[in-house]
Amino acid sequence: MMTTTNSTINLTSLIPPQLYLSTSSSSTAATTIQSPHTCVKHAVNRRHLLTALTLSVSVASSTVQVAGARGLFQMPPFRLSNRYYLVRAGESEFETFGIINTNPVAKTSVDSGLSEIGKKQTVKAAFELKSMGACDRGCWIWPSITQRAYQAAEIIASVNGIVRSYIVPEYSFLDARGLGAYEGKKLETVSEVYASDGISPAIKPPPIDDGTPNESVADVFVRVTQLMSILETQYSEDTIVIVSPDSDNLTILQAGLVGLDLRRHRELSFAPGEVRFVDTSSIPTYKQPASAVYKCLNPPNCN
Hints:
Elements (H helix, E strand, L loop, with lengths): L29 E5 L6 E5 H16 L21 E6 L4 H4 L19 H16 L8 E4 L3 H14 L29 H8 L19 H18 L4 E6 L3 H11 L16 E3 L26
Parallel strand pairs: 3-5, 4-5
Antiparallel strand pairs: 1-2, 3-6
Helix pairs in contact: 3-4, 6-7
């Protein structure tokens, strides 16, 4: 005789004993199930039955392992997944003329490109990266789409043997800091902006109606933190060369990474064509603040 296997699910095994009801009449509709242990019919309240089934499924699903996530990027970071080099592009045509130019509308114009001096500064930066072994095992180059920064990225790639597909243009997070009403003024007047930065990272330059943003240190800090969040999520154990059209993006970024009070970001200023390896454990010796007290553990809120 052929034996058949009973594939019926035994629901009573999922129901705790306290959920069994007596066979007395009840106003709630009931389902009759025969207990395999007592062979006595019990009336089980359907609502209790569904509750028991839900609980059993929840317990079973809780045993499934969930993949971990890196979470939101915080400044200063506990650790970095990648190696980073910060590069300020060489001098631009506008800087040669001694004029402030931060309007993003003009960032791809020829006048926002590298000057002759800027090209030489950038070539020097490219060879410095090569001597540091930055791209010996390959690297990703992330320049601002601003003309001078992208030109600098192409020079860096050429000198270090990096193909163009490893140049990733960044369209907004690395824009030059918008200086509002200082747009078109002489470069020397930017010292007034830095004087305000030293008072509070929340102070914005005066606004202007030509489309130039007026960004505080805290505004730029948000942008560069978003950039780092993308890079730390998209890559792992890679080398990233960040190329900025100005110094402020880099000084504010590095201040956040090392825990420097953002009001003092100017003390980390980058010269045109300067290269710096990111070391989150310290700031460059030649850029150490005069005071030994410089840490900020919750930027941009530093007291």
